[in-house]
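Hi W., the zinc ion complex you wanted:
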Amino acid sequence: MLLKYLDSIRAGLESLAFDSSCIICGSIESEFCTRCRADWRSNPRLIGGERFPVCASVPYSETARTIVLSAKENGVKFTRDLVVTELCGAIRVLTRESKWISKINLVPIPSSRKARARRGFDFISQVTNIAAKELNADNESIRFFARPILSITKRVVDQSGLTELQRHENLLGAFQVVKRLNSTAPIIIIDDVITTGSTLREAVRALKERNLTVLGAATACASQRRLLIR
Ligand SMILES: [Zn+2]
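Structure:
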């Protein structure tokens, strides 16, 4: 009787110590519940055209938005690892046919000074660094290098709520290559989420202005529809 009682106390304490509610939706099922997992479905595929291949892994959803924002704004390691895994998957698919390439430069989309100050870190640069390390650990034919060479040099307003044309005008001339790239290896542009592609277009423009070779872009998450994300 006493033993049973003590056992029930132990079980109660354990459930407190190992709180396993879903980090995304709060469901008590598990740390990353089945429903959220189904929304965050790994499926690295090409979403861009032949001329400029863009590879994305997870389809955009409310769950995906929550995962990315928690990694980006709150620096949660669990969700950041989810983003990195999908990013690596997208880069692998993008480089699968590039057997002739031995080195690739991964160039992150730059964050604004304001965003970096708010977060206390540069999210896209951080995930690009980790992705390069992970890819190098399991790929012997290609070496990946994180090269944060782009910077925002023009004041841009928040993209949310802008039309496609307004986004284009807002971003035109906003990015510049600010660091010397002592490498002729082709570039893959890295972003966490691609929605309309306007940011990506500006990055391509800035890199090509310096006659750099851009192989394509890779992102963890993408939507074909126009969705708003910070
Ligand atoms: Zn959940």
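The radius of gyration is 20 Å.

W.
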